[in-house]
Write a structure and sequence with these properties.
- The complex is a heterodimer of chains A (290) and B (182).
- Chain A has 290 residues and is mainly α.
- Chain A has one domain.
- Chain A contains 14 helices and no strands.
- The longest helix of chain A is centred in the middle third of the chain and has 29 residues, at 138-166.
- The model of chain A has no long low-confidence stretch (mean pLDDT 92).
- With 182 residues, chain B is an alpha+beta fold.
- Chain B has 8 helices and 4 strands; from the N terminus they run ααααββααααββ.
- Chain B has a 4-stranded antiparallel sheet.
- In chain B, β1 and β2 form a beta hairpin.
- The relative contact order of chain B is 0.13.
- Classes of the chains: A mainly alpha (290), B alpha+beta (182).
């Protein structure tokens, strides 16, 4: 990347940070509506750590008890999370708001996984996107933002490589078996829907499912290209949506929060346009620049 | 030199301190490989759906009914977050009920963590305890009350075993009651 790229990203820092922080705050509001904020978890009794040593620390130190299981602590933690999120969104370059919010968000993501009893990766991208907003200097932000782009490539690229190593890629009927396991609940509870008709038809004609699974894996593999060039960023941006759509339809997950990663693949020209659109007094420049 | 044109190469030349930070973060993501696939959030391990899928005869599904037989089932939609707390916890409850938490706590790292932190106020063991598992049905009832906005005075959760027929649709071949309240 050229020095110009760094300087331009540094210039758009306010806009990029605000979009990341806004996305994080928006999904906290969604989680509020869906009863998933700490105080809404209603002091859940089971907290599964699995092999996550950070989760061990949270349980053994009593931190998870203070943040979620203690009714007063859970309410205070929820207020802090929302308030710091709102302030960070309003003042994206104010590190006194951004850093505490990022830390609270990280604590929340650990606690959420603990009480969900599952090591979900829903918040992983957001945790690292928020971390990129920490630096004091705008140019340091630009460097970390480029680093976050590599992280996004790593997330999908490494899962593809693991599929090659562990064997999922080489199993032809992976698509059928995975979809049957994931859709059993839906087909049983909602048998009279058109979606149920489509899934049962696909189960009788598994070629499409198996082929689709391979296409999905190859789409993940495309993110390895991102390590070598930024020229494919628009393709990767589209593929991120494509992967989200396929996993939504067939893997019974909806990782919309992870889509914060697509911001890392925005071409500089898009940021320039958005910057002109959102900077006071720049609307005229926006219409005259093209 | 090609190295100097890379992200890390330029970081090395222009921002030495950031270079070391990024290098440490990159190393963090390789931790699971060296720690026998234990991991340290936020250094996540992106290994889901990487193992071959196993062909299963039957698939477990949980059927929740409350009060006068009202079925609690939310289809998978863009509002997926709203049903996560019972979709994910019910299978774990069933597993803990039958086998307990099988997480090995005699590893070096687990013993080290426990010896350092277990004396703190409100410290909890790494494994899920029997008492915590026993408290789950009461919590589920309260959570469903919050979710439905209705008092739940009767709760019945069945675990069904489904088998796919030749028509591509699943049929229940077995069922057992998992939770019965009161």
């Amino acid at each position: 990347m050229s020095k110009g790229t760094i300087l331009l990203l540094a210039r758009y820092r306010l806009l990029i940070s605000r979009m990341v922080l806004g996305y994080a705050f928006l999904f906290l509001l969604v989680r509020w509506a869906e009863h998933l904020l700490p105080y809404q978890l209603l002091q859940p009794p089971m907290a599964r750590t699995g092999y996550d040593m950070t989760a061990w620390f949270f349980k053994l130190s009593g931190l998870s008890w203070w943040l979620v299981e203690n009714p007063l602590g859970a309410k205070a933690f929820t207020v802090l999370l929302l308030l710091s999120g709102l302030l960070a969104f309003c003042f994206p370059k104010e590190r006194w708001f951004v850093i505490p919010f990022s830390i609270f968000y990280f604590f929340y993501s650990v606690c959420f996984n603990l009480y969900l009893t599952h090591a979900a990766h829903l918040n992983a991208m957001m945790v690292w996107a928020l971390f990129a907003c920490w630096p004091r200097k705008d140019t340091d932000f630009a460097w970390l933002w480029l680093g976050f782009r590599y992280y996004a490539c790593w997330a999908f690229g490494s899962t593809f490589l693991m599929k090659l190593v562990n064997g999922a890629f080489w199993q032809w009927d992976f698509g059928l078996l995975a979809t049957q396991a994931n859709q059993a609940d839906f087909l049983f509870h909602f048998p009279d829907t058109w979606q149920a008709d489509v899934y049962s038809w696909l189960f009788r004609h598994p070629f499409l499912l198996n082929l689709g699974a391979k296409i999905l894996m190859l789409a993940e593999g495309c993110f390895i290209i991102g390590f070598f060039t930024r020229g494919a960023d628009r393709l990767l941006l589209v593929l991120a949506f494509f992967i989200l759509l396929l996993t939504f339809l067939f893997a019974e997950v909806f990782f919309a929060e992870m889509l914060v990663m697509v911001l890392a693949f925005f071409p500089l020209r898009w940021w320039a346009r958005l910057w002109l659109l959102t900077t006071p007094g720049s609307i005229h420049k926006f219409f005259t620049s093209s | 030199m090609a190295w100097q044109k890379t992200y890390l190469g330029q970081l090395w030349r222009q921002r030495r301190r950031l270079f070391w930070l990024v290098l440490v973060l990159m190393a963090g993501h390789l931790l699971p490989v060296f720690l026998n696939f234990q991991f340290l959030t936020p250094f996540y391990f992106w290994g889901m759906y990487t193992m071959p899928a196993t062909a299963s005869e039957t698939y477990p599904v949980f059927h929740i009914r409350c009060n006068e037989g009202k079925v609690i089932a939310r289809a998978h939609t863009y509002r997926d977050l709203g049903r996560m707390m019972w979709i994910y916890t019910l299978p774990k409850y069933e597993a803990y009920l039958s086998t307990g938490d099988t997480l090995p706590v005699q590893t070096v790292s687990a013993r080290l963590f426990s010896s350092l932190l277990s004396g703190l106020p409100h410290s909890q063991p790494i494994q899920v305890t029997h008492a915590q598992v026993q408290a789950y049905p009461a919590w589920l009832r309260r959570y469903l009350e919050q979710e439905t906005g209705l008092p739940v005075y009767r709760l019945n959760v069945q675990q069904l075993s489904l088998k796919y027929g030749t028509d591509g649709r699943p049929y229940a071949v077995d069922s057992q009651i998992l939770i019965q309240y009161p």
